[in-house]
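Note to self: keep these together.
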Amino acid sequence: MTEKLHSEQGVYSEDQIYVQQHLANERTFLAWVRTGTAIIGLGFLAAGLVFNSSANQEVIHKLAAFTGITSVLLGVLVILFAAKDYYIIQRGIREQKFRPRTTIIMFVFASLTIIGCALIALISMLMMWN
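Structure:
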């Protein structure tokens, strides 16, 4: 049940008092969604290289497919983690408790490291073969 707080301007619920925190939480969620979408875009970029490689470059084909599929899966997971974090933080704002969320940050760091290494390997192989 939401408590009512009184001030000179009137009566406010707790959610109205913490509106800035809720709006910041929404902006953070949308930023994570953009990050996940960008990671998915990297996957499509890598998968596009599959179609540009010739059939005898099987290693490049497999590496591009791996990078593409992995990027799409990791991007979707980032968006799912972001949604989970959004609701956890929303509850924390209502309960006036703050716990830093490091799980999603570490996951994105690891994901981008994996994708970056795979893209470096893919581009290096493309440069050697061409």
